[in-house]
Design a protein that fits this description.
The complex is a heterodimer. Chain A has helices at residues 2-5, 9-27, 34-43, 45-59, 67-83, 88-111, 117-136, 149-155, 163-181, 183-193, 195-200, 205-231, 243-253, 265-284, 289-310; strands at residues 141-143, 157-158, 161-162, 233-235. By secondary structure, chain A is mainly alpha-helical. A two-stranded antiparallel ribbon of chain A has the order 1-4. Chain A has a two-stranded antiparallel sheet with strand order 2-3. In chain B, helix 4 packs across helix 12 (285-302) and helix 5 (84-96) packs parallel to helix 6 (115-123). Classes of the chains: A mainly alpha, B alpha/beta.
């Protein structure tokens, strides 16, 4: 049990990711090439960026289900304002103000009105989608105006690597430094592990909570700008897609517990790597999407069951507030 | 409602008959308008597309509204926002409401979801028109694309676009494995490619109609087969993703990208103009909407019970390239909406 006992969910998922990678590299022609490796990282960059924002929320024992809605609708609104001929500064200012306002409202309701985060953000997701879709934009997809900086950003390559990869790496580093080395970053863990105790020792638990939701909204906006840049448009249909579940999946599969207080940026990177490698290998094998979903969920379920068997829940130290 | 409709129709018929009988005396008394008005005035038409948020649905609404307002009827729309459940609920409510619609125009999300509901609607005395997405159900009329033919046209376009000296390797970016538009399109493509045995399909991933997925699978496809000469993406709603992958790989001049769409200016013609797409098989929106209007007018005057006929009115399809573009090739959603706003 010595070796097996040292396996936690993070290590299991990492081992699965490495195993799939090795098998794919040996058997699939064209998998282990520089171009394909860049493509793998790129394909999970936006997802990974969103998962970083989600991770900060989840570690603080919360969840933000409004991220995809904020991502799609804020950028769609921004592009619509540009299309209507507004100046770039004014449009960007308004869009950012809207994003911060939603994050602030989420955080305020969770922190001060003490409504469970899952309900607050579920409601604000619908609110943001409904308001922007019905009042502010004309159709599902809003194109990026030709020649605009968002389009140029999407076409930007540094040493043949798309810009999303660098943004993902940069934000991962920033999130790592924030969580590991700043006072408020450390507080996130304490507040997530035991909010009442954190408050009793004098941490500003509530203002910090508000800050985290504002951060996740801003991260969502950044992810939206990258998506729009790459596709030259923002399609708001993504709000109805399973992308939100993928974000939660990438966040928790690497070992960040939904109960809060555990995990870090490394877990997000492992989760993103597993999803990226799996999807890429299955696409090379030309496996239909229905089977891809089945295979993906089977592997994830296996990892969770394996972890459950090896590391059974300890009722004495298990926390309140599991989702 | 059914009996009321019958009475109205019989009265109309009787009025028409009398009118015809007295025609020689009055000379200028045309019986048509009275019959037309008696059958159509105050009739309610309801449109349930997959979503109101995309070009075709907004185009249909604009065309239908103009015609239906003109004969004194009302047009209502429901927006299921891409959810089959929300659409089913809208249809259920329409059937059970006191103010039942007389004609229901439905865009089905897949072959089977609405089949039973739509049969119920017909039994409740509502004419059902299926638009653009076929379903396993005997609608009073289907108006829209023949998706198999659409696939054939796409395949012909890509074969021509690749040309003789090319690698003859083709990639497909399908939609999904449940929607009739995706399945029939695939069948049409494969039927044509069977005639060109030296052409081969090297990959056929699904995009799930999502542009980001389309980009990712196309990126992989191009890396695995850098010598691909043509790609067919099954919808212009996600083909921007395939186009982005081709652009990223620097292969715009080498890969011929074919897709299909509703012929809206910013979605299709502008993209042909700037080289994002090389050919688009377009639906002729004006004619498709006219077909719907004609069938509404015909069915409401026919006196036949809903479910009696089951006709297919296929819209003319054409693969359009940059060389074929004229100012009138596409319709302009913004202009149409501006026109509507001005009419209000």
């Amino acid at each position: 049990m010595g070796f097996l006992g040292s396996l936690n969910q993070e290590r299991i998922v990492f081992a699965i990711a490495v195993a799939i990678f090795v098998v794919a590299a040996l058997t699939l022609p064209g998998f282990f090439t520089a171009d394909n490796l860049v493509a793998i990282v790129r394909s999970v960059s936006v997802l990974g960026i969103l998962a970083l924002g989600m991770a900060i929320i989840v570690i603080g024992r919360g969840i933000d289900l409004s991220m995809v809605a904020v991502m799609a609708m804020s950028v769609a609104w921004y592009l619509q304002m540009l299309g209507n001929g507004m100046s770039d500064g004014a449009a960007l200012g308004l869009a950012l103000a809207g994003v911060v306002a939603i994050g602030f409202a989420n955080g305020f309701l969770v922190a001060y009105a003490e409504v469970p985060a899952i309900f607050v953000t579920l409601a604000s997701a619908s609110f943001v989608y409904g308001l922007v879709r019905s009042q502010l934009i004309g159709s599902d997809a809003v194109p990026v105006p030709p020649g605009h900086w968002v389009a140029e950003l999407g076409a930007l390559r540094l040493a043949d690597v798309p810009v999303e990869v660098f943004v993902f790496a940069g934000l991962a580093l920033a999130a790592f430094v924030f969580l590991r080395f700043t006072k408020w970053g450390r507080y996130v863990y304490y507040a997530g592990d035991n909010p009442a105790a954190a408050r009793n020792v004098g941490m500003p638990v509530r203002p910090m909570l508000v800050l985290r939701y504002v951060l996740s909204s801003l991260v969502a906006f950044a992810a939206g700008i990258l998506t729009a840049g790459s596709l030259q448009s923002m399609n708001t249909r993504v709000v109805n897609s399973p992308q939100l579940y993928d974000i939660v999946l990438v966040t928790v599969i690497g070992g960040i517990g939904l109960a809060g207080g555990k995990g870090g940026v490394r877990n997000v990177l492992i989760g993103a790597a597993l999803i990226g490698i799996m999807l890429n290998a299955m696409t090379i094998l030309d496996i239909p999407l229905l089977y891809q979903n089945l295979i993906k969920s089977a592997i994830l379920l296996a990892a969770i069951i394996f972890d459950g068997v090896l590391n059974p829940r300890d009722e004495q130290t298990a926390q309140q507030g599991d989702i | 409602m059914k009996t009321l409709l019958k009475t109205a129709l019989m009265t109309a018929a009787a009025a028409g008959f009398l009118g015809a009988a007295t025609l020689p005396a009055a000379a200028l008394d045309d019986p048509g308008p009275a019959a037309y008005s008696a059958a159509l005035k105050g009739k309610k038409v309801m449109l349930v597309p997959l979503s109101m948020g995309f070009d075709l649905a907004q185009g249909w609404t604009a065309f239908l509204k103009r015609e239906i307002d003109a004969f004194g009827g009302t047009l209502e729309t429901r927006d299921p926002n891409w959810s089959a459940e929300a659409g089913a609920q809208a249809i259920t409510e329409a059937i059970s409401s006191a103010e039942k619609p007389d004609v229901l125009i439905v865009m089905s999300p897949d072959l089977n979801s609405y089949s039973k509901l739509l049969k119920k609607a017909q039994q409740a005395g509502i004419y059902v028109i299926l638009v653009d997405n076929p379903a396993n159900f005997k609608a009073d009329v289907y108006t829209g694309s023949d998706w198999t033919q659409l696939g054939r046209l796409e395949a012909e376009a890509v074969v021509k676009g690749c040309g003789e000296g090319s690698s003859k390797k083709i990639g497909l970016v399908q939609g999904d494995q449940v929607n009739a538009t995706s399945l029939f399109q695939y069948a049409g493509i494969m039927e044509v490619l069977a005639k060109y045995p030296d052409f081969q399909v090297v990959a056929k991933p699904d995009s799930n109609w999502d542009a980001t997925t389309s980009r990712n699978v196309t990126t992989t496809m191009l890396q695995q087969n850098p010598d691909i000469c043509g790609i067919i993406d099954f919808w212009d709603g996600d083909a921007t993703g395939a186009a982005a992958a081709i652009r990223d790989a620097g292969l715009q001049d080498k890969v011929y990208l074919v897709t299909t769409g509703g012929g809206e200016k910013t979605a299709d013609c502008d993209r042909l103009e700037d080289g994002t797409y090389d050919a688009v098989v377009m639906t002729d929106l004006a004619h498709e909407s006219s077909d719907m209007v004609a069938m509404i007018k015909y069915l409401l005057q026919s006196g036949q019970a809903p479910g009696t006929s089951s006709a297919y009115l296929y819209t003319l399809l054409k693969a359009t390239t940059k060389a074929d573009l004229t100012p009138g090739t596409c319709w302009d959603l913004q202009a149409l909406q501006a026109l509507q706003a001005a009419a209000k």
